[in-house]
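Most newcomers find our protein records easier to grasp once they have seen one. The structure tokens are whole numbers drawn from a learned vocabulary of backbone shapes. The record below serves as our worked example for the rest of this section.
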Amino acid sequence: MELTLKRRFLKETYTIGSLYIDGEYFCDTLEDADCGLTKAMSLDEIRQRKVAHETAIPTGEYTVVVVRSPAKKRALPRLLNVPGFGGVLLHRGNTAHDTSGCILLGENKEPGKVVRSTLYEQRLIAILTAAQERNEEISIKIMNDKK
């Protein structure tokens, strides 16, 4: 199963994107500010440019697994091997203050926010858990939309 996150609106303090599952639109996303990080950069360069709890993860492709998050105390999709970042999850939340490097799910109805986030988190977990139980590999490709 392939998830694709296309970052559409790169603002000073947040980033709005669209999440697709196997090419079909699923929901909007909210992340911290995009600072131009890419998976191809050296770890040193990522660490130099990253501002803790305020920077979106590098663009690139990552493996996703659904596991129990000790911090959130529930099963959530986790991105593996994100250079310079640890514990990157897809989860509910409403503003960039809720992200800390993670990807929030929902509907972008006003600038800098997503709503109905719990609904989209539950739906995504159900879809990804079913794929994982079928032993499907799950990946996410994160890119800036080139409109």
The chain has a mean pLDDT of 95. The chain has one domain: 2-144. The two ends are 25 Å apart (CA to CA). The chain has two helices and nine strands.
